[in-house]
Amino acid sequence: MNQILTQCPVCKGELAITRLHCSSCNTAIEGRFYSGAFANLSKEQMKFIEVFVRNEGKIKHVEKELNLSYPTIRNRLHEVIRAMGYEPGKEESAGVNEETRRQILADLDEGKISAEDAMRILNGEEG
Fold it and tell me: Per the structure, how many domains does the chain have?
């Protein structure tokens, strides 16, 4: 089965789903249906999201399963976020650089610090 098109190949306008069909019983339903933000994702992005969700968003586990580095996982996640129409990192803490943030999250994932400590550090609060 082909992936659903979300953009008109002629004018680049948004396509609307107007008919659903059951190949088993031949039932057809017509109307206007919302496809959702996930319809904009490629097959590769959907596979990545499946792995990400299966691993409960634990990047260390995603790294291991996909045999990819942290920066690559992070870049793929940002690609997915953008494909869904959002801008990644808008609410990131301004006081913590990316390297420090990565280390804090790694320490949290490994159980070296608590979630409360991680939030406190990410929010720039003194301890």
Answer: 1
